[in-house]
Amino acid sequence: MARRYVDLTWPELAVAVERGAGVILPVGAIEQHGPHLPLDTDSYLAEAFAIAAAARHDLVVCPMIPFGYRSRPLSGGGPGFPGTLSLSGATLVTVLGEIIRGLVGQGFRRLIVYSWHMENQNFVYEATWTALERCPDAKAVVLEAPFADLSAASMSALYGSDFPGWPAEHASILETSLMLYLCPERVRMERAVDDSVAFAPPYDVIPPRSDMTTKSGVMARASLGTVAKGEIAFAEIRDHLCRTVEFEFPELSATDEDAIG
Ligand SMILES: [Zn+2]
């Protein structure tokens, strides 16, 4: 059973730190995910994978950071959609940095920062880097695009030969499938649509051009999401996270039931 930071009492937290437990910080976003997925899809998925890893390793799951960096038109629809709430880069780095410094201050020396939202990349790294700069005995692993290294077999199962690229996959097959697998009651599958951006240049425009995103908020094909695809992707992404934990923090591999009870 995974251990959530907020479920612990202070003596239990102290015992976990004393034992050398690791801590995993999920980072998400509140961002439109088409007409069929909830606004917290990125946050929900980041936390779901963190909890899954903590069920297998001696990890405490820190409260998820629900807000992420500014949504961008080609990878998340941009700021124009109802519901999207974003932080500036400076604020995100500050918030994450203070939480990570707080965890290090509590005594944690093994940290995993796990972000699902593409636009958080680099800000998550920067916050972790600066937070650990003055703590040489702490180590952090930063995963900024944990969905991006699915095996060829899984990519084929999900996309056939028609993978649109990760930015365009926003609110499409992967996220729809994962949510159908993890929390089908939160998916309005009857409203899932297929869509595509009219104009996807290799640059950005500020203020955003309306043709650089879609009207639906889905960037590719949400209708092809299935529970079976979600099961495949969830298992592989979870296992990849667990292998990363085992490789970087072999001492966190649970060997007795009490360690993660
Ligand atoms: Zn997403």
Give a quick set of tags describing it.
single chain; 38% helix; globular; two-stranded parallel sheet; 261 residues; binds zinc ion; alpha/beta
Describe, in plain words, how this protein is organized in 3D.
Helices cover 38% and strands 10% of the residues. It is an alpha/beta fold. Strands 1-3-2-6-7 form a five-stranded parallel beta sheet, with helices on both faces. Strands 4-5 form a two-stranded parallel ribbon.
How many alpha or pi helices? 9
| CA-atom Rg in angstroms | 19 Å
What is the overall silhouette? globular
Q: Total number of β-strand segments? A: 7
State which percent range the strand residues make up.
5-15%
Please summarize the sheet with the most strands: 5 strands, parallel
Summarize the structure.
By secondary structure, the protein is of the alpha/beta class.
